Amino acid sequence: MITTTHLDVGQQPSGELARVPVITVEGHPGGPTVYLQANIHGAEIQGNAVLERLLALCRANRPRGRLILVPMANPIGINQKSGEFTLGRFDPISGDNWNRQYHFDNADLDDFCQSHLSSDDATLCAAFRQRLKAQLARRLASPWGLKTGQLLALRLQQMTVDADVVLDLHTGPISARHLYVPDYARANAHRFNIPLNIVMPSDFGGALDEAAFSPWWQLSQRLAALGRELPMPVDAFTLELGSQEKLDVNQAERDAAGIARYLESQGCWPEGTHKVAPEPQYACALANYRALYSPCAGQIEYLAPLGEPVPAGTPVARIWHYERLGQDGPLYTEVTVPTDAIPVLHFASANVQEGTELYKFLTHTEAL
Amino acid sequence: MITTTHLDVGQQPSGELARVPVITVEGHPGGPTVYLQANIHGAEIQGNAVLERLLALCRANRPRGRLILVPMANPIGINQKSGEFTLGRFDPISGDNWNRQYHFDNADLDDFCQSHLSSDDATLCAAFRQRLKAQLARRLASPWGLKTGQLLALRLQQMTVDADVVLDLHTGPISARHLYVPDYARANAHRFNIPLNIVMPSDFGGALDEAAFSPWWQLSQRLAALGRELPMPVDAFTLELGSQEKLDVNQAERDAAGIARYLESQGCWPEGTHKVAPEPQYACALANYRALYSPCAGQIEYLAPLGEPVPAGTPVARIWHYERLGQDGPLYTEVTVPTDAIPVLHFASANVQEGTELYKFLTHTEAL
Amino acid sequence: MITTTHLDVGQQPSGELARVPVITVEGHPGGPTVYLQANIHGAEIQGNAVLERLLALCRANRPRGRLILVPMANPIGINQKSGEFTLGRFDPISGDNWNRQYHFDNADLDDFCQSHLSSDDATLCAAFRQRLKAQLARRLASPWGLKTGQLLALRLQQMTVDADVVLDLHTGPISARHLYVPDYARANAHRFNIPLNIVMPSDFGGALDEAAFSPWWQLSQRLAALGRELPMPVDAFTLELGSQEKLDVNQAERDAAGIARYLESQGCWPEGTHKVAPEPQYACALANYRALYSPCAGQIEYLAPLGEPVPAGTPVARIWHYERLGQDGPLYTEVTVPTDAIPVLHFASANVQEGTELYKFLTHTEAL
Amino acid sequence: MITTTHLDVGQQPSGELARVPVITVEGHPGGPTVYLQANIHGAEIQGNAVLERLLALCRANRPRGRLILVPMANPIGINQKSGEFTLGRFDPISGDNWNRQYHFDNADLDDFCQSHLSSDDATLCAAFRQRLKAQLARRLASPWGLKTGQLLALRLQQMTVDADVVLDLHTGPISARHLYVPDYARANAHRFNIPLNIVMPSDFGGALDEAAFSPWWQLSQRLAALGRELPMPVDAFTLELGSQEKLDVNQAERDAAGIARYLESQGCWPEGTHKVAPEPQYACALANYRALYSPCAGQIEYLAPLGEPVPAGTPVARIWHYERLGQDGPLYTEVTVPTDAIPVLHFASANVQEGTELYKFLTHTEAL
Fold it and tell me: How far apart are CA B255 and CA B261, in angstroms?
């Protein structure tokens, strides 16, 4: 029922192959194919623990469908240390974010729609998946090669093409748990039981969740314009499950239950199989998810508890200027939030430049 | 005639302000305003020497117009060492390329065109520059702040708004001299006397040259659609003047002469004031400027001399796999170029990953 | 009474001088000269807040003697970001620890002792300070120059030569507060009110505290061998005041009071001027201050609360091997402590290599 | 005759083992055991090519004795990229130089000498090797573990204990070929045909060559003091074979021949088997091998050709201060060499801090 294989995602200068484990849970027939990935950013290790706990849930209670679990998805990033910390957010050579290099190409979408307009849904979807696979294979076979980050991303992405659900497990820097929800998929998002939610439009920006749903979203939109309705066949979410460089096995257990509860809505288990203690949930549109950048440099005290609403004008940080110690004038700059907001995450260091992203906030929140 | 001021471009955690020198050469009346910048990437220092030599040409022979010289444009990047080398290509915190964060926003272009359709060219251009300045000021005044790289980029960009010519001096990794030429500005590009030329479309991709010409290009296109012809008021080029981490004062003198020779065409000096020994010139379209990525990892011998045409199938690198020493089978992988090509640059290290950008090539070359 | 000057400690590639603030509190006559420095490692910012609070205590209650406060002592290290964190523990070019490059040279100690054997204590000490100054000046004037880290260290060290007390404020990675106590100076160490104490021999290992006391210790030993007793004229301590990358102004206030309470014993204030809530204190010899290195790589749960004694055999960490998920066999390695111990600090990341320093422990503890 | 095995030298956070290839050439009986290692610093790849060429010489002409070839000795360092370059000179976590962590402990030497004073040379040497092996095994079995760099170093070092000759292949930054020669082993050093030579005392400083010969040197000295002469049983050299980040297969062939020619003197081949075109050779004592540190920061032109003698006072670099462009006063600082000298290597970047090691020089040269 549970099998493990390995995927080679890149070769290192030493000659060693970077290999990613791929655990397949073959469940009872009749359920969806679910792809779950963790740790594409090297320091974001919490998702691995969540996958471990989710596998335990599968062992305790065999699901319907197929779950593909991919922990430790980026060995290159995981191994990239710089000082004590893990510099695994971007390719150390190019600066390219490891989660912005997935493939998306809908240039031929009109042709595709025209030629499959009379197919039934299943045939149409199968053809569309076939087209996505062919695109990926073609790019990976380019005689000019591909960048390190694209090789990693596309090799992982090949495993997602047949999935009905794609979940990408991340963390923030110092962060409350939050969730990126594509607008069309709001209905079931609350089931993850994640308190802070960002509702995204359905465009492609390079990340895995977008790479998974955007082709389908555009397909359904184009078909709608041609007078045909196609229910969205794929759901995809990015879960941010706390802070980087931390491992919290107890919280992982709770988040695995939240994921399982969501998967109940997709048919993996009967409704109500998994219980969670509900948390209050807030949501805002992506355009209202705002970063606050530091107005000056210095040594910073973070003042705003994550996850708790604060009114406009609240001081959220005090930036000290110890190089002015002993001089006249104020020794710190107080930073306030411009609107009513809920702090989601803050920077991981107390030592900041002018322009450092200090905080991200939900603003103009609404019910999920 | 020559004055120096300083621009604060960011504050460092230690409290020190990162300051950029701004040298203004006030020439005879009647010439263009020319903005020249060097070293936005920390390791690309050769442009500073070119500006130094160009200033000497101005001293020897006072130009018409105004030249604004900005060497050492990115003190944050220049100071970012990692091992012996300078890690100044991207923000060490975010991975953002320092040359991809300039401002561009033409969302209100239709409105602008409609309201200035009856203005004369000078009035229209002055209004457009005013609009660009207002956009930059508005973004810099955001209550949410801006990213470190945007603060740097936009503060520099403010100095370019009044310029008729913008030249951004870069280098490649290990590189022959090459030039990015906007398609509309081909006519005078040969005057720089740079052997390898990439002809770009006129879209915005985040770099300074594009930020300088794209707003104007779109303006002229939109006006053309409305039946009005506006000659492009701004020229902008990115010059790649050799290899990073090198300083070659003699070559800088030659490239300063090439720049001066180009500026003759813009009215800074009488034609023929500056002489260069002409070099053969090749050009290709940006779409034909191709990167070759490494098909495997290893230790590499670069085989193709830069700047010299090679036919399709030529071995351009040998990638050794010394970890296989003593085993059967080939000890190296030979990499060939898929089409006829001219190698422009190669990677700076002999130690590569799978997917490292090994070379960039002109292909399908044409006359400049 | 309070004056601020600046010391240039190095020039950066951009041309900017790295400058360190030097705040001098000129107290009532008759007290010691005290030198306090913070933030020689770029991420260890808490000491700056302690100096700020100590300056407030001086303002509230003018001390006897002279206090020299040097916050932000290493602007080069403070500005060295790598990802979100501060890579300021070692020179990014050479890997040299910024706190291992101070000067020490007692090669001529025999000659010095012989020629000053008949001097009184004050004359002898003045001559010895003069000799230290001359050594530093000579090294700084070398025609071959000095390394970046030596330039920084020696320029700071010049300010310590006249001090009777030298306090160097650091932090650990994730760390309980702890103190390095030279063996000869145990008597007053408890006054800092720091719970965990490491009693050091009096040799030179490169750090500032050692550079401050070792010359004098060897002098007193050599004189003792010649039949003369010289009370140690200099005390020096390294205080580790919590975790790097954190700023805790409340804790800083408490630690400033502890320092002031220690300085009472040196004559800066009358006994009992400053109050602290006493904490239990443990001590061990440096040889019993043990690092525990990771027996394998993986993603780690730290299990042992810092500062609390644990018996031999206690599991202190669980190292997960998520790359083995879905395979048979144990998914984690449990790490136990080999002896009875008190955990002082642990590594700052949950992502470790084989051989990463996981923890440091006091073992064989005794009364301070 | 040629066999390959692998040595695990460390586990990476991703779970992958860092493995080092070990190629053993079993030659005709009667010759020495020779251990050759390359690439302990990640960017110093040229030694791998030299080992490859040396293996070809062994295939062409079977040696006497046993050669153990260890290319790619530090996979962790080889994979550590930062920007384009390889940051493999020191552990990215701790800053520890990978070539300063070998084991040396002669504390029990007196006891050893006393108990083996009457043994014959072969017995004594075997016992000493046994003692070294036991020391290494004991340290590697410590219940407290060992640091990443020590694990790597000691695991490699275990392979050297039985060797009669240890050769460690390095490169400089931008460098002429040079050789570290232990004083006692000068007689045959010229056979390597390396132009620049540094004659070292026989102390331990942490590097592999010292770790290989220092225990034996101290043994022979101690025995001499007890009236017994023991010819040095081990030779060890560090070869610096050009510049980092470069691969020059032709030069590798010449240096492999030089090594083979040296090994003729140790009995691996008959005298005269391998030919080299002799190069002029210079030598100086380690104390006269001088680094020149930059007196200021800036952008640098290196003026002195490597390997060619220059008289005292020669300008060897011009450090430009482009941030002063347009201002009065000199735009560069000229750096001169304080004594007659031969430049051996210079810094790899044109962008330097105050205190950057600009050059290293042989001074007070003598015949090798």
Answer: 10
Q: H helices of C141-271, where? A: 148-158, 208-225, 249-265
Please report, for chain D, the start and end positions of each structural domain, with discontinuous segments joined by +. 2-279, 288-363
Domains C2-279 and C287-363 share a fold: no
Where does residue D100 rank: exposed (0-12), middle (13-18), buried (19+ CB within 10 A)?
middle
Name the closest residue on chain B to residue A312, using Cα atoms: B143
pLDDT (tens digit per residue) in A149-160: 999 999 999 999
Residue of A nearest to B312 (CA): A143
The β-bridge partners of B70 are B37
Taking CA atoms, what residue in C is nearest to A23? C326
Cross-chain residue pair B16–C15, CB shorter than 8 Å: no
Residues of chain A in contact with residue D80, where contact means CB-CB under 8 angstroms, are 80
Nearest to A357 among B10, B147, B151 (CB): B147
Long-range own/partner contacts, residues B16-20 (CB < 8 A, 24 or more apart): B16/A323, B16/C16, B16/C18, B16/C19, B16/C75, B16/C79, B18/B75, B18/B76, B18/B152, B18/C14, B18/C16, B19/B75, B19/C16, B20/B70, B20/B72, B20/B73, B20/B74, B20/B75, B20/B156
Neighbours of D127 (CB within 10 A): 14
CA A52 to the chain's CA centroid:
18
pLDDT digits (tens, 9 = 90+) for C39-56: 999 999 999 999 999 999
Interchain contact, A79 vs D18, CB within 8 Å: no
What local confidence, expressed as pLDDT, does residue B227 receive?
95
Minimal C-alpha gap between D313 and chain C (Å)? 11
Cα separation, C348 vs C360, in Å, equals: 12
Token representation of residue A344: 């989601």
Distance CA B364, CA D13 (A): 45
Q: Are A89 and A77 in contact (CB under 8 A)?
A: yes
- Chain D residue whose CA is closest to A39: D14
Q: Which residues of C lie closer than 8 Å to B, measured between beta carbons?
A: 12-16, 18-19, 42, 72, 75, 78-84, 86, 92-93
Q: Which two tokens stand for residue A279?
A: 């948390």
Rounded-to-integer distance, Cα A276 and Cα A177, Å: 15
Phi, psi of B26 (to 5 degrees): -90, 110
Query: How high is the mean pLDDT of chain C?
Result: 97
User: Which among B13, B72, B82 is the nearest to C79, CB-wise?
Assistant: B13
D92–A83 CB contact, under 8 Å: yes
User: For residue C33, what are its two tokens?
Assistant: 């000269």
Closest-CA residue of chain C to A85: C349
- The reply to whether residue D71 touches residue B320, judged by beta carbons under 8 angstroms, is no
For residue A204, name the pLDDT band (cuts at 50, 70, 90): confident
Distance of CA C209 to the CA centre of its chain: 6
Chains C & D: contacts with CB separation below 8 Å: 124
pLDDT averaged per 10 residues, chain D (length 368): 96 97 98 98 98 98 98 98 96 96 96 96 98 98 98 98 98 98 96 97 90 96 96 97 98 98 98 94 97 98 98 98 95 98 98 98 94
What is the distance of C-alpha A279 from the center of its chain?
Answer: 20
CATH, domain range C287-363: 2.40.50.100
Band the pLDDT of A205: cuts 50, 70, 90: confident
What is the topology classification, in CATH, of domain A288-363? OB fold (Dihydrolipoamide Acetyltransferase, E2P) (2.40.50)
Collect all residues of chain A within an 8 Å Cβ-Cβ radius of residue B86.
none
CATH class label, B2-279: alpha beta
Which ranges constitute the DSSP H helices of A161-248? 208-225
Of the candidates C72, C79, C82, the beta carbon closest to that of B79 is on C79
The confidence band for B27, taking pLDDT boundaries of 50, 70 and 90, is very high
